[in-house]
Amino acid sequence: MKHLLIIIITLLASIYSSAASPSGVGEESTLPSPLSVPDSILPYVLKEKRAAYLVDSSSNCQLRRIDAQRVCLLRHVMTPEVETICYIYDNQWQLLSTQSFDDITLTHRPDTMSQERYEELLHLIEFPLVEARFATSAASAEEANQIPEDPLTLSLSLNVPMITDEQRKQLKEILVQKNVKWNGETFKED
Fold first, then answer.
1. Can you give the pTM of this predicted structure?
2. Of 66, 147, 150, 170, whose Cβ has the fewest other Cβ atoms within 10 Å?
3. Tens digit of each residue's pLDDT, the chain (190 residues)
4. SS3 for 186?
């Protein structure tokens, strides 16, 4: 767990250090510095060393501003398939909420498929892992730091580990991608 926090902070440091402050934008629109993360979140690392850690290849993060007061951090764990955890922080790195997307159905039975076949395919999904990505990618760290004009949107997809290539091919018939939008409190389906 401590290692994951170090990875998150490192990624945040790289995003923050490459971001140029947009001229004419107040302090509220700037992402909080990774160096300002409280000791309670990262207790064993000196503040001066927090930006020096390397990002682990088994995990990475994406960071976007939701509004002037909140930041969305998507942590992607890459083993055995990508799974995402969504954290909402304020500008002082206080965790406001953690959001899971397990309640969103990411499968759909095509009209041409029998209910029996659909249920057969659903049984292949023993360990569903939801992956979330920002629906629009930021071209730069500066762009990720800007307050979006429209509500922040995430694109969700389902990853299924421990299946064969043939089973994965069959599952593509029923797996769907869905978007969720920030409604002021949480991410909800369109």
1. 0.71
2. 150
3. 555 555 555 555 454 444 433 333 334 445 555 556 566 554 544 555 444 433 456 778 888 999 889 999 998 988 789 999 999 999 888 999 999 998 999 999 999 999 999 999 999 999 999 999 998 876 666 777 777 778 899 999 999 999 999 999 999 999 999 999 999 999 999 7
4. coil
